[in-house]
Each structure stands twice: as structure tokens, then as C-alpha cells.
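Onboarding guide, step 5: your first structure request.
Type a short instruction followed by the sequence, for example:

Predict the 3D structure of this protein.
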Amino acid sequence: MEKVKVLFVAQEITPYLKETSMSLIGRHLPQGIQERGKEIRTFMPRFGNINERRNQLHEVIRLSGMNLVINDADHPLIIKVASIQQARMQIYFIDNEDYFYRKFTFRDKGNKFFVDNDERTIFFARGVLETVKKLSWRPDIVHCHGWMTSLLPLYIKKAFKDNPLFTESKVIVSLYNDDFSEMFHKDFGAKLKLNGITTKDLKHYKTPSYVSIMKTAIDFADGLILGSPDINPELLDYVRESEKPLLENQPMDNYIDAYSDFYDEILVTETITVE
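The system replies with C-alpha cells like these:
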């Protein structure tokens, strides 16, 4: 029997970024799921504060070289990879000189939110999906961690739904306490739009806040996980009102088994389709 394939997409993974609840889950969950017999791939952004030499990142030439057009500008897609030897797993990094060479993640040294975080989010989501296409790897489950992955449910269910690699993919969104108070660019909806995405799909982006981008992720998800005990109250209400399959926040000492069981539950539920 063919192994279940799980695509993990995370904005934070330790040891590449500092330890948080999200980065620890990003590090240990894929390993645990792989040890439970599933096949995995794991992606994160190649932020400029990741030490490439210490972490032994190197470019994968056969996967790099594509240009992604965002807001009428070409941005070369660079794919790098590193190995976590003790876990026997690789991490793929989405890189681009325009978006990821600065030595910070989301804010500059003065704590100012980067004005192009909206485009970085678009580039990251599209970069992941285009790389999975190049790998010809069909994920049964796509598990998204953090607001920078929030476009993946929309893209998979609408723009990539006719691609045979993603047609049957189930999308799970983990919600964390990773709020930001700033707004994305007012044209965020127009910038991210691809064929297959309708104006109705973009309804939350009229005011592109943290809450609105995560509400869209919830709308297009097949299952939801509370990755933190203290997520945004408005989002928590929205999650519960959605009545979608939900895994409550789990203690860190045994969450992997609970997540694995939840994957199996989602695999046999009807795929969410949003018209």
C-alpha cells in the first residue's frame, strides 16, 4: 500500500530560527509523522537571518530558475535544502534576493513591519507549490503553520485544483498566537489573484489584516488545529462557527500521536469545496 504523503509548510522551524512553540512543532512533527510510516516533505522561507554555512544550506539547481510574477515584476525562485541528520529529513527553503536577503524575518531592527510582507507571503506560497510540481510529488495532506502559509489553502482549492498533484489534497491549518497589528498592502487581493480565484474568494482581503488572511485560510481548509492555547479570540470564534473538523490544543509531550490520528480522520472526510 502506498504511503500517505504529508507536505509540511511552516514559517518557523528550529534550529534555523529561534525556538517557539511553532518552530518546535515545525521541527519535531514532520520527524514524528515520518517515524509513524508516512512520507514527508517540509518547506520554510529562507530568511536572511538563517546562517547558511552553519546549517549547511545549498542550492538545488534542478529546482531553481523559475520566475514568479508578482505585481507585474519578475522574481527568481531559488530553492535551497538542508538536512537534519538525526531526524533523517530534509528541509526545503524558498529563497529570493528581493524578499529574503535582509537579516530579519518580518520586522527591521527598529521593529517596523516590512511593507512587502504581503508579497513575501505570496512568493512563499507560490514557490512551495511550484517546487512540489517540479518534484512531481502528490501530497495527500498539506499542513500549514503560521500566517505566512495562509494563502496555500486558497491556492490549492482554487488556482491549483485542476492540477492532478493537488486535486485530492486535504489542507489542514494550524492556528497560533502569531498575530500582527499592521495591515497588508490594500492591493493584496489583486496581487495574489491567479486564474481560478474569484472576487468572492477574496472577500476577506478588503481589509487585509492578520484576522482576515487567517479567516480565508480557515474558509478553504479541510481541518483545523489549535496550535497554541491562546489564539486570537475572533479567530477562535470563527473556527468554532465553521464547524469544520477541529483538533483542540494538545500538550507538547504527546501531540504527535494526536496529530497523526487527526490526519487519518481528515483523509476519510469529504474534501472541502468552495464555490
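Each response can be followed by summary notes, for example: The radius of gyration is 17 Å.
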